[in-house]
Every structure is written in C-alpha cells, then in structure tokens.
C-alpha cells in the first residue's frame, strides 16, 4: 500500500484528521506522513488495523524557530510597461518538537511506513498522545524522547526519565542545550 493510499484511508476513517505527505529528497527517499496530534492515537489504531503491527523505532527531532527566505517573481506595470520584479520574502517558521515512528507489517513483510507528529511549540505546548497503547514497543523509546527532548506523552503508562537522573532539569538533545561545566555535573551526580 502506498503512502497516498494510507493517507486516504486515514482521512476517510477519521473525520477532520490532517495528514500531510512529507517528501524526503535524500537518497533514501523515505517519504513520511505527518499526522496532526489531535488525531494521533486514533490514526495509530487505524494503521494497526492496516496490519502495521510492529513499531521498530521511535525517535525525536528538535526544530528550532527559523527564517525561510523565498524569492518571488511578480509582474508590475511601470509607466505603461509591464516588468517582472523579483522580491525576497522572509517567513518565520515557528519551532516545534517532532516524533517519528517507523512502522512495519510483519504479516505482509512490508515497511517502513514513517509517521510523524509535531508539538505545538518547543516551550509550553509539548504534549503528544502516547502510541504505546497501540504498539507496546514504543514504551521505552517514548520515555527516551521525554527524557532527552522534553516531549510529554499523554496516556503513557510509565512516563519518567530513563537515561538522565531524576532532578536533571534540561533536555540534552535539544539544539539549544548548553551543557554545564564538567565539575557541575560531578556535583549534580553525587546528590
């Protein structure tokens, strides 16, 4: 089944579900589906029903706020003469955290189907639905994304740190993370 067919099935099964095809221009060409977080758990159940029964990998990506610059050509009339003008348009793209799931069908021996979900931002709107109720193999990997990126998985059965110690207050995989000096880490580790 192609990603477009899966996308159509998700949209037909879940009214209002936003599913976008994300094209990957790299040599791997593993395109993916970006699913809105409001329908993430419901979409996971539909995907499981399509025999995508194994979640092999869950990872996260930090997308800081960035400015995208595009050049747009427009036609304008000056003194009765039409001229093509090139303008530079800058667009601010807000930052977010993204979780990426790699799904396989063991029965059909197909995959991966790559599924993504994004948080509202990188600061205070960082909640996504846990997909652990659908794929048990996502449990520890969602905990890792919580621990290292600060993504809160709503409905996770045991959401707590898995790599960093309790009391560690930052998220070391975020792009703006600044590690403390080594001597501060030794003091923190002794507590």
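Q: What amino acid sequence fits the structure above?
A:
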């Amino acid at each position: 089944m192609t990603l477009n067919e899966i996308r159509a099935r998700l949209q037909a099964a879940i009214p209002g579900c936003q599913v976008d095809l994300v094209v990957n221009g790299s040599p791997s060409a593993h395109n993916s589906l970006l699913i809105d977080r409001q329908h993430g758990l419901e979409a996971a159940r539909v995907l499981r029903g399509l025999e995508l029964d194994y979640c092999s990998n869950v990872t996260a990506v930090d997308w800081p706020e960035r400015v995208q610059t595009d050049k747009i050509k427009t036609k304008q009339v000056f003194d009765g003469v039409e001229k093509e003008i090139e303008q530079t348009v800058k667009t601010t793209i807000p930052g977010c955290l993204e979780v990426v799931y790699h799904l396989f069908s063991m029965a059909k021996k197909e995959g991966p189907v790559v599924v993504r979900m994004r948080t509202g931002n990188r600061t205070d709107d960082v909640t996504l639905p846990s997909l652990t109720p659908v794929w048990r193999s996502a449990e520890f990997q969602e905990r890792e994304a919580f621990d290292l990126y600060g993504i809160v998985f709503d409905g996770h059965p045991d959401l707590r740190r898995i790599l960093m110690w309790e009391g560690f207050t930052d998220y070391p995989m975020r792009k703006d993370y600044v590690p403390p000096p080594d001597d501060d880490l030794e003091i923190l580790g002794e507590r």
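Q: And what stands out in the fold?
A: The CA atoms of residues 19 and 35 lie 5 Å apart.
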